């Protein structure tokens, strides 16, 4: 899929994600909008995966460590054919398998349960190390939030990945500058992230994480060290009144706001 097609598909995923969150009456829509370009590029261009064989041992692994943005992942999985598209309307409903955080025992295409922050990257390091030990050729990708990088477990995993020379691991940090309740700057400012990661002997690429022409080549890059992509994104990307607003971390639009957002996203199609 080329860049233009990926951009169009990302807009469709944003629209469906907005609808699902509004219908469910809950969701982490700000961080979902910021990460959708990355998810789209991964699932429709980069990942070696087979929706009809979700446990194929040769598949690439993807872990959404910022599991609270699960709805964006579900919509992407549905578009890719892992689950029925009509199932998205069951998000957060009683007895639905589409919970507020991804569950690998319920949803095809989900590699591990996430939600508690600081767990996805350590698990991904384990996956990448397992590939090295077994001679498997799969690549492991993991997306974290920037606020999540305040977790000490992540830095232990970063140190281990460098020690084990895991060139089959790509970390993408969704650097939208906001976390629950406050900006990253006002909470525990880790920026700039690049020199900290380079100090652990990681290769680091900085991109506009909402620009598909930058996202794709960064994800496709291969080197001789663990690779981190610091993806500078906008919280609430694509919806004017949500962009760069901390209050849209976990919030549902009113009917009037929803109609405005639908119009903006539909016009972008």
Brief description of this entry?
By secondary structure, this protein is an alpha/beta fold.
Task: Characterize the structure shown.
Strand 6, helix 8 and strand 7 form a beta-alpha-beta unit. The protein has a single domain, classed as Thiamin diphosphate (ThDP)-binding fold, Pyr/PP domains (Rossmann fold), CATH 3.40.50. The protein is 42% helix and 12% strand. It has helices spanning 3-24, 29-46, 70-80, 120-134, 152-163, 184-188, 194-199, 212-220, 255-268, and strands spanning 61-64, 140-145, 169-175, 178-179, 182-183, 203-208, 227-232. The strands form two sheets. It has a five-stranded parallel beta sheet, with helices on both faces. It has a two-stranded antiparallel ribbon with strand order 4-5.
């Amino acid at each position: 899929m080329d860049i233009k097609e990926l951009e169009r598909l990302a807009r469709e995923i944003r629209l469906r994600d907005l609808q699902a969150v509004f219908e469910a009456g809950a969701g982490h829509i700000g961080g979902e909008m910021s990460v959708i370009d990355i998810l789209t590029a991964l699932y429709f261009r980069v990942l070696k995966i087979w929706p009809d064989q979700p446990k194929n041992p040769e598949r690439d692994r993807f872990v959404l460590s910022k599991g609270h943005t699960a709805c964006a992942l579900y919509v992407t999985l549905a578009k890719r054919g892992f689950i029925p598209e009509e199932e998205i309307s069951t998000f957060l409903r009683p007895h639905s398998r589409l919970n507020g955080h991804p569950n690998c025992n319920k949803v095809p295409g989900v590699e591990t349960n996430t939600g508690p922050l600081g767990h996805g990257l350590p698990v991904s390091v384990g996956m990448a190390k397992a590939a090295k030990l077994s001679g498997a050729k799969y690549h492991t990708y993991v997306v974290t939030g920037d606020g999540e990088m305040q977790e000490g477990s992540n830095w232990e995993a970063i140190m281990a990945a460098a020690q084990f020379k895991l060139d089959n691991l790509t970390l993408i940090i969704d650097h939208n500058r906001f976390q629950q309740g406050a900006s990253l700057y006002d909470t525990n400012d880790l920026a700039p992230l690049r020199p900290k990661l380079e100090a652990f002997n990681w290769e680091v690429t900085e991109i506009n994480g909402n620009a598909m022409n930058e996202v794709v080549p960064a994800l496709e890059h291969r080197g001789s060290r663990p690779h981190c992509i610091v993806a500078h994104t906008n919280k609430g990307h694509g919806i004017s009144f949500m962009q760069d607003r901390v209050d849209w971390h976990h919030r549902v639009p009113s009917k009037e706001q929803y109609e405005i957002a639908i119009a903006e996203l539909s016009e972008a199609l």
